[in-house]
Amino acid sequence: MTRSQPRRQILSIVVLISGKGSNLQSIIDAIESGCLEAKICAVISNEPGAYGLIRAAAHGIENRVIDHRSFASRDAFDLALHRSIQSFVPDFIVLAGFMRILGSAFIQSNVDKILNIHPSLLPDYKGLDTHKRVIENNETKHGVSIHLVTAELDGGPLILQGRFPVTADDTITELKRRGRQLEHRMYPLVLQWLSVGKLHIEQNSIVYEHQLLQEPVEFENI
Ligand code: GRF
């Protein structure tokens, strides 16, 4: 597992969202400022009212709604989503606050291509309400994980983790704020690594600078 040819074409991504889209904005900003060599082919939301759609439109990025409520089954929604994404032939599918669980057929059809960002130090605190649970459990550390998406919810191979201390008087709002700050630095960074060939994803494994990644890379504290 040692290949590191610089990419010849610009990294193309489709970003999936359900809401605010602050991570999407961080990716757009990184591209526009020249820190990230990538192209967002499209932004797709399952929620018609997602503010991220407005962000995409404001930057001239193609944006679509595929409302899961319009489909009779999860599989039918996944198939429509898959077809829409494939029309852009992206290198990667970037989940940025996409609040639908993707089925195994979708994941199988997009092996090694789907990235997610999760507001906890995975494998701890999979699922929702991570900040609340961190406080309830009196944790002293919290953070953010970027991982490859596999059939196991929030369970794919870890790529990058950022951690920060939690103090006794921290609130959910404060943890969320600090976590988001990290997220907005981490997602563009991972995409840039993919873009320049510093990071490869092969057969469900993460290869970082010629080495199989056994542990996620650590991002600096904030
Ligand atoms: C982030 O906290 C991310 O970790 C989680 O969903 C949230 C999305 O926020 N997966 P935004 O829509 O990017 O602002």
Explained architecture:
- α1 packs across α6.
- The chain has helices at 22-32, 51-58, 74-86, 104-109, 130-136, 172-196; strands at 11-17, 38-45, 63-65, 92-95, 114-118, 141-148, 158-165, 199-202, 205-208, 211-212, 217-219.
- The chain is globular, with a radius of gyration of 17 Å.
- The strands form two sheets. An eight-stranded mixed beta sheet has the order 3-2-1-4-5-6-7-11, covered by helices on one side. A three-stranded antiparallel beta sheet has the order 8-9-10.
- With 222 residues, the chain is an alpha/beta fold.
- Helices cover 32% and strands 25% of the residues.
- Bound molecules: 5-O-phosphono-beta-D-ribofuranosylamine (GRF).
- The site of 5-O-phosphono-beta-D-ribofuranosylamine has 13 residues, from α1 and β5.
Largest sheet: 8 strands, mixed
Q: Segments where pLDDT lies below 50 for 5+ residues?
A: none
Query: Strand arrangement, largest sheet?
Result: 3-2-1-4-5-6-7-11
Query: Based on helices, strands and strand pairing, what is the structural class?
Result: alpha/beta
Outline, from the CA principal axes?
globular
Number of strands: 11
The rounded Rg comes to 17 Å
**Helical content, roughly?**
25-40%
Return the string of H and E elements.
EHEHEHEHEHEEHEEEE
Tell me the β content: 25-35%
For the record, give the distance between the C-alpha atoms at the N and C termini, rounded to a whole number: 33 Å
* Average pLDDT rating: 94
How many DSSP H or I helices? 6
- Hetero groups: 5-O-phosphono-beta-D-ribofuranosylamine
